[in-house]
Amino acid sequence: MSESDVKLEQLKSILRDMGSAALAYSGGVDSTFLLTVAKEVLGDKIIAITARSSTYPEREFNEACQYIEKLGVKHIVIYSEELDIEGFSKNPKDRCYYCKKELMTQVKNIAEKHSINVLLDGSNYDDLGDYRPGMKAAKEMGVRSPLKEAMFTKKDIRQLSKIMGVPSWNKPSFACLASRFPYGHEITREKLKMVEDAEQYLIDLGFRQLRVRHHEEIARIEVSPEEMLKLFDLELMDKIVKRLKDIGFKYVTMDMQGYRTGSMNEVLQLDNNK
Questions:
Q1: CATH of the domain at 191
Q2: Cα–Cα distance between 145 and 116 in angstroms, integer?
Q3: Which of 29, 151, 166, 225 has a Cα-to-Cα distance from 253 of 20 to 30 A?
Q4: Are residues 193 and 146 in the same domain?
């Protein structure tokens, strides 16, 4: 039995012992894999709860709904507008703590109405290596992270998802749109819409793994190293610049380091080294 198979059996055992659970489901690689396994183990004793807000792109929501319908899992949609949380729009370093707290409070209330005691999220073992203030909120709320408990890395999840036929196995990594702003820069609905429209345009052009970071007048584009050559096309660059200026940016730049997870946290690492 391979290491991945061992982890999968451990994951199933963890879920089986729960009896029933409510999963905060985003439609991303991790939560989709977890939901698929939970459906196999728990049947109709697993419910998926998806939060709609201005930080959650329409395309992500639609994909989440389509997969849940295909899987046959009970799906509950809630509205959790982070910008209504006091202090969130000011974008403090612990912004994700308040977001996670609000989300899981709503998930807990729904779970209780369905006589479900266990709350789940899709955090994986790799998440322990990044700055994740949302984990503190999850711990306070008693949220379980089965993928983390079974020591699933992102690589494990993608490999098993491919074997199991889970369509998200090669889906680009995604984080809420609030992560596109430097800490301390105010987040507004208008700015979030700018980011969503800019990223959707690049996706429509065929780019897969990307971010458009919002630095007020400046759009900083991150694409994967494999896609950088595609971006080095003068005609395409002109189209991108024109579109992003139409969206509201005054300057359009490309990050020469390319896409990497948590690039906005790099400033925190610099602060820690002072």
A1: 3.30.300
A2: 16
A3: 29
A4: no
In single-letter form, the type of residue at position 207 comes to F
Element (H, E) at 245: helix 234-247
> Are 166 and 182 in a shared domain?
no
Q: Where is pLDDT greater, at 37 or 262?
A: 37
Q: Looking at the structure, do residues 163 and 203 belong to the same domain, yes or no?
A: no
Helix (H) or strand (E) holding 77: strand 74-79
- Give the pLDDT confidence of 56-102 residue by residue, as tens digits: 999 999 999 999 999 999 999 999 888 988 889 999 998 889 888 98
CATH number at residue 166: 3.40.50.620
Domain termination residue (choose one: 145, 170, 195): 170
Same-domain check for residues 166 and 208: no
- Measured CA to CA, the distance from residue 99 to residue 178 in angstroms comes to 10
Q: Are residue 70 and residue 159 in the same domain, yes or no?
A: yes
Does residue 56 contact residue 28 with C-beta atoms inside 8 Å? no
**Across 220-237, average pLDDT:** 94
**Number of structural domains found in the chain:** 2
Q: What is the spatial distance between Cα 37 and Cα 164, in angstroms, rounded to a whole number? A: 10
In this predicted model, which residue has the larger pLDDT, 132 or 33? Answer: 33
8-state DSSP, 20 = S
184 backbone dihedrals φ, ψ, rounded to 5°: 90, -15
107 and 200 part of one domain:
no
Is-contact 220 255, C-beta < 8 A? yes
Are 88 and 192 in the same domain? no
Across all residues in the chain, what is the average pLDDT? 92
Domain that holds residue 31: 3-170
* Nearest CA-CA partner of 236 in 204, 195, 212: 204
Q: Which residues of 27-66 are buried (b: 16+ CB within 10 A; e: fewer)?
A: bbbbbbbbbbbbbebbeebbbbbbbebbbbbeebbebbee
